[in-house]
Amino acid sequence: MNLNETMLRQIIMDHYNNPQFKSIDSSWKIKRYNSPTCIDDITIGLVLENNTIKKIGFIGIACAICTSSTDIMIQEIKGKTVLEANKIIENYLNMIKGKEFNEDELNELIAFKNVNRQPSRVNCATLGINLIKEMINE
């Protein structure tokens, strides 16, 4: 994806202002995490069937980076197997950590490629994703 900085910011703001997956059902497996260092407070809801992510969403109050990264990750992994989702998550986390990653497999998640330049934002970009990773691997 060849996007300029303005386009990358727009992806983040679109998913922050209009998240597609900001809802959960009380019958789903639910887990909450709130950051001790900022406002980010995310609850993930998840349904796995036959090792596939059938239903997934989130609720909570969080900054633009946390909200949009969680929303976009859900967009990328919904309907995927746990193995496929883990591959996407690891590729994303490698990008955030400044390690080698495959840009072609990230789609809109590439919007966060410069987050590692601001160490204080790394937690924002990984909070929801780490919670998803934990839940799908339990």
If you had to describe this structure to a student in words, what would you say it looks like?
It is a single chain. The chain has four helices and three strands; from the N terminus they run H-E-E-E-H-H-H. Helix content is 43%, strand content 18%. It has a single domain (5-136), classed as Alpha-Beta Complex (Sufe protein. Chain: A), CATH 3.90.1010.10. The chain is globular, with a radius of gyration of 14 Å. The termini are far apart. Helix 3 (82-96) runs antiparallel to helix 4 (119-136). Strands 1-2-3 form a three-stranded antiparallel beta sheet, covered by helices on one side.
Concise description?
By secondary structure, the chain is of the alpha+beta class.
